[in-house]
Amino acid sequence: MDGAAGPTRLQSSMKRIARTGVLGQIVALSLVALAFAIGTGGRFLQWTNIQVMLNIAGVPAILALGLHQVIVLGAIDLSAEGVMAFVIVFVGMLAKNTLNSNDVGLWILPIAVAIGAVSGLCNGLVVTRLKLPSFITTLGMSWILYGLAVYINKAAGIPLTDARIPDFLAGNTAGLPNIFLIALALTILVQILQKKTRLGTYIFAIGGDEHLAGQTGIGIRRTKTTVFIIAGALYGLAAVFLASKLGRAHPRSGLGNLFPTITAVAVGGVSLTGGIGSAVNALLGACIITALNDGLILMRIDPYIQQAVNGIVLIAAVALTIDRKKLGFIK
Amino acid sequence: MSDTTLIPTPVLRLSGITKVYPGVVALEGVDLAIYPNEVVGLIGENGAGKSTLMKVLVGYVQPDSGRLETAKDGPVFLSGPASAIEHGIGMVFQEGALIPNLSVLDNLFLCHEKTFERFGFLSHRTMRRIAREQIRLAQIDVDVDSLVQDLSLANRQMVEVARLLWLSSIYGHPNPVLILDEPTAILSDTEVDTLFAILRSIKHRASVVLISHRLSEVVENSDRIVILKDGRNVAEMPAGSAKISEIEQLMVGHEVSADRYLEEHQHEPQEVEVLRVEELRVEGQFEPLDFSLRKGEIVGLIGLIGSGKEAVRDCLTGIRRADGGHIFLEGLKVSPANPHQSIRLGIGHVPIERRSQGLATGMSVQDNINLLVLKSLRRGGLLTRRAGRRNAQRWVERCRIKTPSLDVLSGTLSGGNQQKVVIAKWIGANTRFLILDHPTRGVDVGAKEEIYHLIRDLSLEGIGMLIMCDTLEEDIGLSHRILLMKEGRLIKEMAAAPNAKPTPSDIIKFIV
Predict the structure, then answer these.
(1) Which among B101, B109, B133 is the top mutation candidate for probing chain A, defined by the most A β-carbons within 10 Å of its own β-carbon?
(2) What is the pLDDT of residues A17-54, one digit of tens each?
(3) Domains of chain B in sequence order
(4) How many domains does chain A have?
(5) Dist. CA B413–CA B403, nearest whole Å
(6) What is the pTM of this model?
(7) Which of A131, A142, A285, B172 yields a CA-CA distance of 20 to 30 A from A258?
(8) Which of B100, B111, B122 sits opposite A196 (nearest CB)?
(9) Three-state secondary-structure class, residue A269
């Protein structure tokens, strides 16, 4: 029995590795690294530059960890920038700052996560109860939250004076930037959620075929809402980290994060048609995008050309990962 | 079955199930009892109510009246497939119910993983062990970690069977009822043999309801046969003593009165040929075939699903390209390469899916009728309202379309009048040959007759028609001539003159 099961077990574990779908991303990352290593005369691969890149990659990685889960579900979440602005305004009011005497200390972390989660809950409820497409819901939500944020805050940057979080984020542990280690830890958590829990299985089932998933008895609305909440919570965390890194709370500082996040998710190999991709893909995607932009900067490429390159990368990545037969039969 | 002195109690009993859809009575007081460890073959023509009954069995559709009870739980209410399986009733859907991007393992336990959960985390080791066990019990040769989308269709079906067996066992049903809807339609011959071998081997722990249009297959593999017709039970018999010819007779029922299809209006068609098909073929669908159609002639094309008739239809409408052969329209060689071209050539098509393919339900009656002739309604390059109204008015009167005005949305009309709008659109566009694909589907009895009238009128005007109908009676009743297809070949041609029409059982012999 054991002898017969041996090769099958080996085969199946090989298959499982192949199916994680990260080989292409690792190859892509290596190619980007190689190209820039040549282009910058080796500067790109210096350890200090790698540390800089990992440090930069932290925030987009956390955002991608949230966003990709919604995409695996077969939906989309465009609310990241609005949620970040909204969270940042509260960070400016509640964390130790120069404007008022509030100081919630490190409690700002769970508070930011909670505000993000509530925003995600709103997204989820509108999508599942009002039965609106996630595209419109989250786009609208982003504008609502951003508008409210700027109105409350009067578009002022509030200096944050508690140095504990920024100091920690800027520090290294075992040579790796702490913020990247946090992103890595979150990746592992989300990966466990996806592979080891019922919720994770249901997310992939809904992304694969929502109709059939509903037929088997999966609570579609509850699952979807939960995913939007998780995504929102991660945007909240990304927002408080971003504000801390910048040393001030300004609602505009989250702007410009949505596009790189979507690109990272797509480049990471998460299919926009749903059902394919995992946390590791999101993390790798964020690393590839960060490396690409860092390399272009080191090579002194015009920033507008950089932007165009990002657009090309997004389209190319989606072209490679999208499942065109999704509406018909999946093979 | 009767070798035991005890009369077994049925594991599942349906009594007096009635389901009415707008305009159609799908089920009328149907009774069905399923006993332990038996295979029941459920037989009926298209539209006899088989699929509605199956949907009732798994809670997809709630009956308007009637009772459903199981031996274990008494009377039950099924809100959907998930609640049906908790009562030990599961269905293997023809189109498959497994999620393609998940593994066999994930699919086996989907939505019922609770037993494998410890502190909120799933134990994949236990899941894998149980999955391998279940897969072995169902005699399927698949790796539990492979994705369902990589499995053959036969294996997918068997994984579904394994899933249903496992689920019913965890819900405490030692003898679940498994429903297989046309399980062999998508399988190769060897796969079919394997499927039935496996079904026989699981019989000691389940009952099976088998639905198939292949009669011999049902008779061979069932213990008991239940026949439905027009939403009612007509007969029930042990499979051992059943004769196919007898079943056929019961399926189609008594002969219908001749005047229902307006046979007194069936006139001899004109001599001139309108359509001729030579050596037409599509690889893997049908072998080269020839036939012709005269002006005003109505020809019924009959065959089971998979006989190739759908592919013939698609070649004529230009939906698909033939792999060889020629089509002549009024003596001119044509090769419709797309629907647009066949419309221009004068080939019309009234499709089976009226609401999604035949009619723009969100457009007015007038706009639908004028859709194909917009070019001729232009004055100086612009569409004029007056010309459009006149044209539409003419066809509404000609086809006796009952509509409050030309401007109501066509989707609001009754099914019969919608169909008349579709037909009006085609004949208004100078169509010389019309394909009518199930022209009376979803239409009530009164409107059916009006459509028959319209078809007879068109025939008198010299429009050639190829029809594919809901029932054999309708095909026979309307046609001048009948073409029979079986397994990709045109096997027979029959005349159907008034008062000398073949009977449905004459035909069913050839096509089954």
Answers:
(1) B101
(2) 556 678 888 888 999 999 999 999 889 999 999 999 99
(3) 35-252 (3.40.50.300), 357-430 (no CATH)
(4) 1
(5) 7
(6) 0.75
(7) A131
(8) B122
(9) coil
